[in-house]
Amino acid sequence: MMHKLTTLTVATADGYSLAVRRYEPTSTIQGTVLLVSAMGVSQNYYAPFASWLAEQGWLAISFDYRGMGDSRHGLLRELDIDVVGWAEHDCTAMLDWAVTQSQGRPLVWIGHSLGGQLVGLTPNINLVDHVITIAAGSGYWRENAAPLKRKAWLLWFGFAPLLTPAFGYFPGRRLGMVGDLPAKVMQQWRRWCLHCDYAIGVEGDAIRQRFAEVNVPITAFSFSDDEMMSSRNITSLHGFYTNSRVQIQRIKPQDMGLGRIGHFGFFKTINRDTLWQPLIQPQLKAVERSTSASPANAPSQFLRSVSV
Hints:
This protein is of the alpha/beta class. The protein has ten helices and eleven strands. Helix 4 runs antiparallel to helix 6.
């Protein structure tokens, strides 16, 4: 093992303790990566990828949102938090802490699915030098990939509105859907997924402006066989970042020598050489070469999807 793993907690401004893992390289640290999870996914899922980042010389930091994974304290039905709160409290605290760990070195945000959406909801996001999103789309259910649409209809019009008030939280683990979620998280997420403009369509101009204020360059990786996010979901979300330089790469599994990637496959250890190395390492190398004078600070532009 070519890194040191430390488990610790980081306190948010409102006093909640978040479970954090710190993967420190044994070699010279090139920069810091903050890993931001998908909805209902524990940081444990990203451990192999975090270890690989550390082997590349990058300090990797993962965490669980409050109520999730190792950050679940007490009864979920008693937790008063929604998705915006995860961004404003948890992601903000983690980003501030990551800055102290980076010690002036480059700082990269890698967000999977929801982790790519929270970029536009985290007030201090412009502290990072680069954002990489993985399989991150808007979530609008009518634009979901075909395999998800039927399940999405059952979730949003059946299970979510009936079971969340009955249990005081969403019991997704029992259903094999998403996982257990705080009530307000599920209720807010449902409202977003039923609106064609997702979060900004529901929350209004204040949230729209917050997305527009993001001026960090964004690289988005999406996958043609994603069973959840369609290309329209991907394009819609990244179109909200109107003042960022956005590049979307649409990946076909067969072009990478793979049979399948899907919504979750990117982070599997077997894709170390087929996805992590050719897709992520060049991004990190580019950040290492300095982002302070890069086109990221030039006038914004939105680049349409390309395939590799």
